């Protein structure tokens, strides 16, 4: 499809803040130029961002090139320095991409739109790569045109246009761009497909890229419908008194295909990549179908699924969780707990902490220590936390993770407001300070930040 400003503009909204992900390469050079044209005619707010991966010696020169180009356009450019070195078992491509997307996500404000320059040929290559990996429908859906991304949205406005059209546009406008020499390295699967496979296919099927991209669109539509179906299953199987965990009985009543669908959605909604099919089946067989032995668990690179009594729990790997951590808290703004979600506190009707005691005391947050005891509101006598946790059926591995809010050094509330100390609890019929604990940010990885959907 010929790349014209009018066609490109459709779907971009005046008054919105767009941030162009600018690598300095051909595709994003064209994207930046087009976005500047759109700014000229329709008054969008525009800035650009370049990620400096800090790996290749040429990275400094690329950043300088991007800064010079952005200056010529009169566009503000953020340069983000990230550590793109691969971790154990991670490919260099994936490490750089993950670091890049994490830093871009952190830059966005609510409502901002990050625009990236993937195009039709990228989409076709992604589909082929996914097929060769044996991906399921979600992987074959490849890249969506727009998807939630951190607090904002990731938008790919060039997805309808082919590489040839993009190159023609760049030449026509005499744009300058950087050629990344690694794009020629056929050790990388994507480069191999782009340089060897696609040209061969195009000899026989000239519309191969457009057709593959169309298939990706069909898969995306079907995957969207399945997600809706999975959400219905998830709503019925979620344990009523412990959101985030699944009721094993409800899962057992489902057909195995539905169980797999449900497990994949459950895992993905927590921001984790789904384990391979074999492992998913082990989870079904050993944690759902079989009568539970003592708290069985199955782990993969991203987390662990555990069964405790008649519940299934999902625990993301949280290397940064530290049980000896402690901090002072104003109680006014939300508090982030490293590797353990966050706390917030607000006045609400119902059981909670007496607002006067809350305001006049010094608030700190910590985790469980040996010998901790509590007299729960409405009960007589002090009890060891271990006993209270056991009594509530709290799985052993979650016990050390319950944040403990103290006032003047004495325990006031545990696990949000799940346990309240009688000495600090307000009248349960009144308005009190209710502390809420959100153990993990809930997000759907089938957005822009799922590595499986990005080139
Ligand atoms: N270092 C970077 N800084 C900012 N954005 C980037 C960077 N690398 C890639 N992007 C964005 O992500 C998109 C997809 O990345 P990919 O690695 O596929 O880039 P590419 O195909 O080399 O594109 P380009 O020709 O723009 O470099 C790019 O089009 C660009 O918008």
From TrEMBL:
CDD domains xref list: TilS_N
Keyword terms: ATP-binding, Cytoplasm, Ligase, Nucleotide-binding, tRNA processing
Main enzyme class: ligase
Subcellular location: Cytoplasm
Principal subcellular localization: cytoplasm
Domain notes: The N-terminal region contains the highly conserved SGGXDS motif, predicted to be a P-loop motif involved in ATP binding.
Protein family according to the UniProt entry: Belongs to the tRNA(Ile)-lysidine synthase family.
HAMAP family, A to Z: tRNA_Ile_lys_synt
Protein's recorded name: tRNA(Ile)-lysidine synthase
Gene from which this protein is expressed: tilS
